[in-house]
Structures are given as C-alpha cells and as structure tokens.
Amino acid sequence: MATRSSLATGVGRVLIAVYGILALAATGRSVVQIIEKFSFAPFAYTLSAVAAVVYIVAMIALIAPGRVWYRVACVTIGFEMAGVLVVGTLSLLDHQLFPDDTVWSYYGLGYLFAPLVLPIAGLWWLRKHHRTAAQATPAADHRSDATPTAPVGE
C-alpha cells in the first residue's frame, strides 16, 4: 500500500490541477495541429506535442509518492523550464523558425504566460518539499523485512 504524496496537498494540488489543464490544452492543440496542418509548421506542432507529454508526466510525477517520482518531477519540470525559455527566446528572435505558435512560443503568451510561471512554481514547490517527498516512499520500496532476491542467472 502506498503512502500519500505530500506534494499533492495545499499548493501542490493547485499545481497538479494547472498541470492537468495544460496537459489537456496542449494535447488538444497538438493533436488538432498535427492532424489538420502538420506540413505547415512540423517543428512547432511537434514541440506542442512534446509540451503535452511534459505536462502529463509532470502531473503524474507530482501525484505519485516516493523518491523516484520526486526525481521524475524535478527532471520533467526542469526540462519544461528550459523548453519554455529556449522556445520562448527563439520565437522572439527567429519568427521563420516558428511559422505558427507552439504552447511555449513567446514564453506561453497564448496561455497567459502559465507555461513560464508554472515551472518556476513547480521547482519552488519541489525544493520546499524535498525532505517530505523523499519520506513519502511507497511501502513496497521498504524491503528491510523482505528476503533477498537471487541475482539474475542463478
């Protein structure tokens, strides 16, 4: 039986909800763009799909308890932050690279800058709850009373 993740309380619930909303929005946007007009801006539409996957994984990682999921959340949200900064900057500097907007274009302007603010809030929340997240490890991870397993091949 898994213990409840301390990240899914208070502000963490708001973060999870916003990640869920952005996951739905980015998934819908990228699916429509890819189906209807992929040849117009394949790079931009692929980046929107990548953003959707990032939001889905980040949401799951914030919900799931344990050290592994905490690390997944850190890596995913860190990647999101880098993506928003790189894509946002490139969309300002090279309009030809992005003939159509992505979720992260202009630092998330089309989403009221939520893609820029969300990873900052997410990384802050993860840093604030580092110790409690590490302690919210699923019971299956505690194997002190379990019998050792034989090495593979024996």
UniProtKB/TrEMBL annotation:
Residues that span the membrane, as ranges: 40-62, 69-92, 104-126
Keyword vocabulary terms for this entry: Membrane, Transmembrane, Transmembrane helix
Superkingdom of origin: Bacteria
Protein name: Integral membrane protein
